[in-house]
Fold:
Amino acid sequence: MGGKGGKPPTGAPDAQRGFQMLSLVVNAGSSSVKAAVFDGALSTIATGAVREIGARAEIEAPGGEGPVEARDHAAALALLIAAFGGLSPIGMVAHRVVHGGARFAAPCRITPEVIAGIEAVSPIAPLHNPANLAGIRAVAGLAPDIPQYASFDTAFHATNPEVALRYALPPEAEALGLRRYGFHGLSYASLVANWQGALPKRLLAYHLGNGASACAILEGRSVASSMGYSPLDGLTMGTRTGGIDGNAVLRLAEVYGIEGAARILNRESGLKGLSGMSDMRAMLRAGTPDADFARAHFAYWAVRHGGSLIAAMGGLDGVAFTGGIGEHDDGMRGMILDGLAYAGVRHLGGIATGHVVVRMVEAAEERQIAAEALALHAGEGR
Structure:
């Protein structure tokens, strides 16, 4: 397996880079671990993943793929590290942490205090932060002396003005952590960092995948996001509703209970709820009325939220797409760009023909995490 933009990996990164220190980036999910190895120039030299941890685990890594025994995240990570050639050339490990709450507005070195802080906001992100912590603890168990760093998906949006972050709730409710945080921040930070040429002053960026969001980027900084307290809000997504009235949520909880409502909102809605399919490629192949409507719904709400974000920036100079759908679905990009024509977007086959720049940018979240960790590591004088 080769990483995007890098060289084909082998089973032993040290054979390629000699004694040069490498960075291991870990993205731990509830039942999976993805990992990548980068050299000092941020070239990807190995990638891999273990899925279905604790059940029918499958590995994809240098040397092949197939079923493996991986009862927990530590076992899965050990398998990946072995496939990468061991820890000897690894000088640091960097982790994606989905939710940093209000405390973590920048990447940081992982310490016991940082772990406690990530634990403290886990109730806000119960599907994500515990898995991220499992990855951190797994590395600590395998190599307790190796420095670890955390990059937070919410951090890029910490530059939003307070008026964009606050819900109109009384103080005692806000004290529960109920405020807008925004997500996909590492994707947007990577988009800004990897932009070729002058970054448009007012950039509307879309991260479109199974999870989808939009972000208003003014002079390189996030000023508004379509996602809020959780990754549920905003655009129509693969299995998530996107924006929905709070009283509709209460009604679902009344009928199905809290757990049932959470299941419906997060796993049975969005494109899946509208068409029975959560994958855009399957919907295109199906070509059914329900599939066509679901695609139209996705585009409509991307455009509608885009209008709100354009207002937050006071205008529009560029539109960017990233993520699996954003990079590969020409038809969906075209539908969204057509809907933004009122804002001065002119395009031919997805290529800008007017004053508003239109661009696709390859998603590179793991490389962004590695870059942030390397900068911190260098600043420590190590």
Summary: DSSP finds 14 helices and 15 strands in the chain.
